[in-house]
Design goal:
It is a single chain. Helix content is 47%, strand content 9%. By secondary structure, the protein is an alpha/beta fold. A six-stranded parallel beta sheet has the order 1-10-7-4-2-3, sandwiched between helices. The protein has a four-stranded mixed beta sheet with strand order 8-5-6-9. A hairpin with a 4-residue loop joins β5 and β6. α3 packs across α12 and α9 runs parallel beside α10 (195-212). The longest helix has 23 residues, at 32-54. The two termini are 48 Å apart. It binds iron/sulfur cluster. Iron/sulfur cluster binds at residues 275, 324-330, 353, 383-386, 388.
Length: 511
Amino acid sequence: MTAQPAGGPGSMPTYLGMPAFPDAARTAVADSQLRRNLTHATTAIRVKRARAVAELDDWEQLRQAAKAIKDHTLANLGTYLLRLEESVTKAGGRVHWARDAAEANAIVANLVREAGARRVVKVKSMATQETGLNEALESEGIEALETDLAELIVQLGRDRPSHILVPAIHRNRAEIRDIFAREMAGVDPGLTDEPAALAEAARRYLRRKFLTATVAVSGANFAVAETGTLCVVESEGNGRMCLTLPRTLITVMGIEKVIPAWADLGVFLQLLPRSSTGERMNPYTSMWTGVTPGDGPQAFHLVLLDNGRTATLADPAGRDALHCIRCSACLNVCPVYERTGGHAYGSVYPGPIGAVLSPQLTGIADNASLPFASTLCGACFDACPVRIDIPAMLVHLRARHVDEDIRERRLPSPEAVTMAAASWVMADPARYARAQATSRAGRLLRRRGRISSLPPPLSAWTTARDAPVPPRQTFRQWWRTQHGADPGGHRAIRGHPGPQWPAAPRGKDPA
Ligand code: SF4
């Protein structure tokens, strides 16, 4: 399955032959090895994160501060982007503006050609995955080599990332060893699947590439408008090799990554590592401002990418998705992600944030099933360090999808017909009572206390779940045996005090 380079406003690579989420998820959950790998990895990260977060008494205040900074920045995005451009230019860098993925890729390809290079080394970057940069460069005869270990595993395995932070989370050690043994030129034939041996093999392989590369491409976690400083956080140091050794550095960054000032960076550098890897701080936090003669890259280009972000900003109910700092905490706590993995989402951004961001960047129609890929349990909101209310956004996007669907259809959908019928039945007590009595016939379909298969068109419901067995008695019948009257009719019985509901526990929903 290959990523297709994108073109046009708000575009992202799509994956050839990728089925919609419900079909892809069905295949994924049937893969027990994949589920074991995912459960092992997400459980370990969750435990580490919880421990790191519990160390801070002011975690909630930090979350509130981060949200406030993001709200303010996005409300004044134009101002801060122009300030960033001015600061980067003053420090010796050049800023390029890209409306969409195709423009960003063309800018990068031109810059690489201008630098006289045929190969670039890359720091892990979601923005360049979003634009399909590797494939675009390849079509221009330029090789792009991923240097983040997990990205390297994905690239050598001709695979796709399945997690924002740990792109090869779906692979175990034995699978990684096989990929290295098959694809890495000059690798030790006796390579084991010990983590240290795998890391050493990758280090030797990459070191040669770092020392000969003249151009590097990176993303950015943050960009400080007041000074023009770019920031990348990572765990391995491979990113820092890319950021310091080559002569030319090209950074592709989504426009929402700008923050106003250095003081703001302090908030995010506390939240991000704890939320992503469960560490107090990232092992490597690299920052650079323009170019410094005789030190590091001597040419620096910043490509500011829109690609659907301005349109997302225009939707008051959806714009908070742009607050995301790509920590991936929401993926690690999501019960749906833990069972399906990232590939099933069919988009560059998987998990809960992908379910709200991808449809907004590229249009709901392209990702129609993603807002439904959630139980709405709310774990993503609780974990999010910038307080993005993902469940509320999912409900909003579902409504938008339904509205668009209704507008486009000539005939109402089966779901709309079912809802209209249910509404008609429930609007009248007599109709409702008759429907209840009829539904008891469903008891004939039960096998061993369950209904696992309903006849069409209701069979769609039971392909993924059991249907509840109707009780022997309806609620009305039960009430009648207890009170001698229909519910609601009790007041007609002389002297009857009305329904005697047990008192609800204080502070709890009586339901
Ligand atoms: S939505 Fe929140 S939790 Fe999820 S990746 Fe973004 S910042 Fe992290």
